[in-house]
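Format is sequence with structure; example below:
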Amino acid sequence: MALALAEAARGLGRTAPNPPVGCVLVRGDKVVGRGFHPRAGDPHAEVFALREAGERARGATAYVTLEPCSHFGRTPPCADALVTAGVGRVVVAALDPNPQVAGRGLARLREAGIPFTVGVGEAEALRQQSGFRSLVTRGRPWVTYKYAVTLDGKVAAAGEANGAVTSAEARAWVMRWRDEADAIAVGIGTVLADDPRLTTRGVEGGRDPRPVIFDSRARTPLSARALRPGTLLVTAPEADTRALEDRGAHVLRVTGLPDALHGLGRLNLSSLLLEGGPTLASALFAAGLIDEVRALIAPKLLGAGLPPLNSPARGMGHAAALRDPHVEPLGPDVLISGLLHDIPRLSAGGDL
């Protein structure tokens, strides 16, 4: 399953609205086929693995990071493909929350007399599939808030040009996170203060996530580096956006933040990396719309400056605790990550 998860990771940021999925076929003690889902419309992971294995798939064990699909979409059902190939057993990391599947893939295997096991490597599979699961069950992308702070909790010095908070090692990780996200969001304050590119740099084979600018009054300068064909401008219904649209911006007129995220979901954006400043992050946090946090902490002291959140004080008893927190060094910096919301999942209970 570790190999299957590594295969699935190759599709991160490229498969929406589909999930990233990996499959490995093992016969005896040899891997005879492996595959991953590269993008929506292409064959699924099981198909690539079965093609590589050929006749060696008969009697093999299939390790799949998501329940094989059971319906006709852009491609035929993978559960049927496994049955036709004559696999001897199927090991699944996580069940599919899509109502069109949701246990039906396993039911197809049972009908064919193929034994299966569910839940191996589930935790990592759920993290890989968090965007897909959010889009299917909530109609909006999974929102990950990434920020970098000094030891005294400042993201930037107020009122002056700011250099990088963290090291080159940490910034390289951020580029990989961007590569794995469908979209990257900032607020108009960040655009005016920092003029970010919102691109992926230094990642071999990398691709840029779709830029999203939250700008209720359409104040984004026409010279902004994040403004390019396809950039999403999230703005108020009455904002004058004609000049920005002429520059290629796609305008999303909304009446609030929940409406904005559901608008992104309707565009099949399943994962959103939030890199905005305190104003946008605080608004999303207050609305309960941040799902995951990745905080980079640099061994520096700044003094006066801006915090990552400027929400009104609520008292320590009301602090939002991260679930399943992880701490790891990135060069001289430290990454603390964890969840604010559970990743939507489907239980393997009932008659499965």
Observations:
- The radius of gyration is 22 Å.
